[in-house]
Amino acid sequence: MVPERQHRTPLFDALVALAESRKLSFHTPGHKSGKGISTRFRKFVGPKIFEIDLTTLDEVDSLQKPVGVIKEAQELAALAYGADRSFFLVNGTTVGNHAMIMATTRPGDEVLVARNAHKSILAGLILSGAHPRFFLPEFDPSWGILLNVVPEVVKEAIDQYPGAKVLTLTSPNYYGIAADLMRIVPDAKAKSLVILVDEAHGPHLSFHPRLPLSALHSGADLCVQSTHKILGGMTQSSMLHVKGNAVDPYRVASVLQLLQSTSPSYILMASLDLARMQMATEGGKLLGKAIELAEDARERINRIEGLRCLTEEEVKGMGDFGLDVTKLTISVKDLDLTGFQASSFLNAEFDIQVEMADLQNVLVIVSIGDRRDDLHRLVLALERLAGRLAGKPRASLPSLLPSFEGRLLLSPREAYFAPCEHLPLRKAEGRVAADIVTVYPPGIPLLVPGEEVMASTIEYLLRLADYGARIDGLLDWEEPKIRIVG
Ligand SMILES: Cc1ncc(COP(=O)(O)O)c(C=O)c1O
Question: Does the N-terminal or the C-terminal CB of the chain have fewer CB atoms within 10 Å?
């Protein structure tokens, strides 16, 4: 039974009411309900959106100190997600990850960090001055992807660093592979660790039993979700949830006041209000449809010669993991193509854009916005792609692995703020990185500020760049340079 309150959308309703009241505005934003906006912009998007692009006013409440409709909208989100407090975010899960770390650590504190963390977790550590103790996720050579962390490795890290106060995990990962939180959380709780989960890819998990268990339902203390990535939130809209007594919600609120804009977008916040209502009232039905479409496409793709699409069974066979089945990881390795090439091919020849490519795979997100025809078109394009390459001689692609073997010689904060120099990447072996270097997406740091630069990492980055990956965190791409501690 859906509680009647979940049909309410207090923030959106207040925005519409204020827009319709046609009050004379002598406040920001300067476009004044669209009257001053560029004509081309208004012609393309229509006039309505500008009428609710408002600022902090009594009628629509304040994100920094909510007492009215934003407070109620956040309370409804907390109820829907099973949280004690929920906070709306307007700079994505990025700012939520910064806030989780800032709210739970002090300079010098030890934090256990799963090494598949997004770069925003590292940025949080730079901001707070806490010191990461990394532990590694599993890697699957056949698919060429990082899986997730297994309970045994997390337990080892917990035992190895008894001084740590906080544990951060990323689950599910970009490919939808979830860690077994039900086994990890009790080990962490037994040592009184605060558990933070970057659940950027899991804002929908709570609303369908077929999906992996959500972080909050597994006992995490804090989690952040990119509502915009999977559900109806506008780009940049996310939520941070707090559950239990391990973290003071006032501390979280205070950190968010520090990190978030004092002019948050009401369009983004309204989209969070509506996305929560949509999930709470009809999430099961909408997600059920998306799951059915994804499973059907997965089965069809797995019948195409030369292609493989990752299944839940396979993922479970690789360790204690779960799979968000709305993600389709499609391996093109047996066609002697890189994922980057397949992605370009789908775009150029079929006007199909995928979420991400890596060396061996393309990743497709199926969501509540997809229709049967869309998936049918994807499968047809994949059939064409495979058909064209069938029977061609195949040189097998190398399976490139990130090494993650550099030692952390300084804390990320010390390294980030240390005097530094720019050095060609090829000459940086043995030096200490001062920046976060990632392949984006997925944005997992291959070099962390404070980490020794290993020859294997240099080789990995250069080869991936040759294959067409986008490397972030380097300077001067002609002759790639890296900021190193001087
Ligand atoms: C695991 C993970 N965490 C955090 C983020 C950042 O999220 P956002 O884009 O909402 O800021 C991403 C983005 O891709 C991500 O993959």
Answer: N
pTM: 0.97
Compute the half-sphere exposure of residue 188: CA atoms within 13 Å on the CB side of its CA.
Answer: 29
Q: Are residues 247 and 382 in the same domain?
A: no
Q: Which two tokens stand for residue 213?
A: 């268990």
- The range of the structural domain enclosing residue 327 comes to 284-389
Q: What is the mean pLDDT of each run of 10 residues along the chain (486 residues)?
A: 93 98 95 97 97 97 98 98 98 98 98 97 98 96 95 98 98 98 98 98 98 98 98 98 98 98 98 98 98 98 97 97 98 93 96 96 98 98 92 68 90 98 96 95 93 95 90 86 95
SS3 of 111-173: the string is EEEECCCCHHHHHHHHHHCCEEEEECCCEECCCCEECCCCHHHHHHHHHHCCCCCEEEEECCC
Amino acid (one-letter) located at 397: L
Q: 415: closest CA among 442, 453, 450?
A: 450
Whether residue 93 has its Cβ less than 6 Å from ligand 1 = yes
Could you tell me if 422 and 300 lie in one domain?
A: no
Residue 90 CB: number of other CB atoms within 10 A? 20
Please tell me the distance between residue 256's alpha carbon and the centre of ligand 1 in angstroms: 17
Would you call 444 exposed, middle or buried from its count of C-beta atoms within 10 A (0-12, 13-18, 19+)? buried
Of 251, 224, 258, 277, nearest to 76 (Cα)?
A: 277
CA of residue 174 to ligand 1 center, whole Å:
9
Q: Is residue 405 part of a domain?
A: no
User: Using CB atoms within 10 A of its CB, is residue 256 exposed (0-12), middle (13-18) or buried (19+)?
Assistant: buried
Quick one: which atom of ligand 1 is closest to the CA of 228?
A: 10
**49/61 Cα distance (integer angstroms):** 19
Residue type, 258: L
